[in-house]
Amino acid sequence: MPLQNIDFLNYRKLCSYSPAQTLVYSDASGFASGAFTVETNSKVFKESWSDLDKSKSSTFREIKAVFLALRSFAEYFKNKSIKWLLTLRVVYK
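User: That's the sequence. What structure does it adopt?
Assistant: Structure tokens below.
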């Protein structure tokens, strides 16, 4: 096989790019989390933390907020490209 075909043979497309169809914002505080979609038929998710979750790090709560919102919006997100924005606070003592 000629060497000029090497790029073709090593190329595998995992997925095609498509611009975001849905924009989501999420945030987590010390007592609750929430997320919402930005569009005409906006979807909203909110949940209070358990005492155990309240004792976890803010990074853990931010990640869990995304997970819970994804699970809540799963049916709505099928076959959609999503852009997700979240707030991460860094506090230095």
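The first strand starts at residue 22 and ends at 28.
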